[in-house]
Each structure stands twice: as C-alpha cells, then as structure tokens.
Write a structure and sequence with these properties.
Number of strands: 0
Number of helices: 2
Distance between the termini: 31 Å
Helix content: over 70%
Strand content: under 5%
Radius of gyration: 19 Å
Number of domains: 1
Order of helices and strands: HH
Largest sheet: none
Shape: elongated
Structural class: mainly alpha
Length: 85
Amino acid sequence: MSGLEESLYALDWNNNISVAIITLVSYEYMLQFEKEVTFVWQREWSIMTYMYLAVRYFGISVSMTCACWGGLFYIPETPCECISY
C-alpha cells in the first residue's frame, strides 16, 4: 500500500468512527433530555446544578470535537521516535 492509500484508509476509518460516535452521543442525550428537564431544569438552582450543566454540555462539545477531528489531534501517522534508550 502506498502512502496515499494508507492516508485515505486512515481518513475513511476516522470518518466512519466519527459518525458512530456522534450518533451514540446524540442518542444518549435525546434519551436523557426529559429526565434532565424534570430533575435539573425545574428544580431550585444551586452550584451543583451549574456544575452539572457545565460538565454535561462541555462534555458534549468535547466529544463532538474529538469525533470530528480526533484523528487529526490524537492519532499521529508515524510513531514518535523522540525517545531513545
């Protein structure tokens, strides 16, 4: 396999995984939204409510970013040869 074919294969793999991750995360959020409205949005607001919402919605933005561009950020094409023993 040439270098171009390997890169295209890796990109195709990354795209397929991205679709699966986005689908699963979106499905989980849709399933839990009714409970979230009942138990979080309709209660008295406290610091824990703000923390929960920050973690939940910051988490979805991070997971979507990693799903779309995770391969570009975290999967190097070549292993690091920096450490020599």
